[in-house]
Write a structure and sequence with these properties.
The chain is of the alpha+beta class. The chain has a single domain, classed as Gcn5-related N-acetyltransferase (GNAT) (Aminopeptidase), CATH 3.40.630.30. It has 4 helices and 5 strands. A 5-stranded mixed sheet has the order 1-2-3-4-5. A hairpin with a 4-residue loop joins strand 3 and strand 4. Helix 1 packs across helix 2. About 20% of the residues are buried. Bound molecules: coenzyme A.
Length: about 130
Amino acid sequence: MPEFSKTPATVREYCDLREASGLGAFPMENARIGLANTLTAVWLRDGDRLVGMARIIGDGGCFAQVTDVAVHPDFQRQGLGAKIMAQLLQQARETLPSDLYLSLIADPGAENLYEKSGFEPRYGMSLILP
Ligand SMILES: CC(C)(COP(=O)(O)OP(=O)(O)OC[C@H]1O[C@@H](n2cnc3c(N)ncnc32)[C@H](O)[C@@H]1OP(=O)(O)O)[C@@H](O)C(=O)NCCC(=O)NCCS
């Protein structure tokens, strides 16, 4: 059974899991910059293999965003996504100030997971920087 790990994803592991889960890989250089600016993250490993993750990024005081919630397809629908969200929010409560505004953009199909974690629907917008 996969377990939470304190060993952060390498840039390669992060890109590979994003791709395998269907989130889509970023260029390696983007991922290197992004990972270095993580506020808190959950890494789930089956042995050495990274099979789940989630991160919180942001200014650390007023606004933060949940990103990269992913479970490898080999391990989906076993409750791991819910466990990852619970662990991520526990770490957030332990390391980030109360009253911080935590948001996320839910991909279609994942709304239930976030509503169960206490998130409420809002109207979000996004673009990919050209
Ligand atoms: C979303 C994701 C992280 C869920 O991980 P998981 O380990 O399969 O989730 P769990 O088994 O803990 O399921 C938790 C809840 O998520 C929801 N859920 C999970 N997979 C779902 C799916 N394919 N379709 C609809 N709801 C789903 C359900 O509400 C589920 O609760 P239930 O089993 O009581 O119905 C995983 O499916 C994934 O990595 N998907 C691809 C990447 C992605 O879309 N990430 C979210 C970006 S916002």
